[in-house]
Amino acid sequence: MGTGKLLLKVPSTLRFVMDGEMPSYLLAKDFILHILGEITVSGGTYKSMEFVGSTVESLNMEERMTLCNMVVEAGGKNGVVPADSTTYKYLEDKTSVAFEPVYSDENARFLSEYRLDVSKLEPVVAKPHSPDNRALVRECKDVKIDRVYIGSCTGGKTQDFLAAAKVFLASGKKVKVPTFLVPATQKVWMDIYTLPVPESGGKTCSQIFEEAGCNTPASPTCGACVGGPRDIYARMNEPQVCVSTTNRNFPGRMGHKDGQIYLASPYTAAASAFTGFVTDPREFLQ
Where is the Aconitase/3-isopropylmalate dehydratase large subunit alpha/beta/alpha domain positioned along the sequence (predicted)? Predict the structure, then answer.
C-alpha cells in the first residue's frame, strides 16, 4: 500500500500436447485425471498449465472447461486452452465487448512439456483419498459402491449430463444405487429439461434419467461436493462409497470423514450406477 504497487510472480508454464483420435468412451475428465496421476497434486504448484494439440482443438468449450477447472488440483495457478474458432463461437452470445486473444509466443520456453496419445488412453478414476491416486476403471471393477453423484462445476455442465444420458440410453436398465443429479447452473438445469438428447427420439435428459430411476435433478448448487451441514442435498452422512464427477476426494470432502470417493467421468459414473460397482463405460458404449 505504501508504494501503490503489487508484486506478482509470473508463473512458469507446463505444456500438455494431446494428439490422437479421441475414443468414444473417453471424456476430458479422463484426460485430467490421467495428467494428475502423472504430475501429482503438487506437480503444478504456482504454474500455468497449457493444453494444446489436435485432441484439445476437437473438444467443445465445456470439455475444455473441465481440463482447466481441475488444474488447481495439481496446485496450478491457471489452466489455458488457446483461443480458436470454438472459443469465438462460444462467446458470440456471451459478450459484445471487444477482446484480444493472447497466445504463447512462438519461441516460448516451457518448464516441462508432456505429450499424450489419447487414442491409447483408457477410462480412469482417482481412488480415495486424492485426485492423483489414479487407477484404470477396469482395475476397480470389484469395488462395490453405495451411490453415484453427477454434478459440481467440474461435472455438472450440460455436456456432462448429455454424456450421462447417453450411457443411460444405451443401457435401457434401471440404476442399482441412488443416483444424484446436481446441475452447476440454472441454465444447465433448464437444459436438462428442454434439450433433446442426440439419437434418443427427442427425449430430454430429465426423461431419460427418470426412466432409469435416478433421483430428480436438484436445483443448482455446489451440493455435496463441499460437504457442509448434514442437511445439504446428497451429502454423505454415512461412511459410504461414492462414484462422483466432482473434483476432489479428500477425507470428509463430501461429508462423512470415512466416506470413500472415486472421482470419474460422467460416462464412468453413469455406467457404475447401473451395476453397483465401479464400471468401465465401454461395457455400455461399445
Answer: 2-139, 140-276
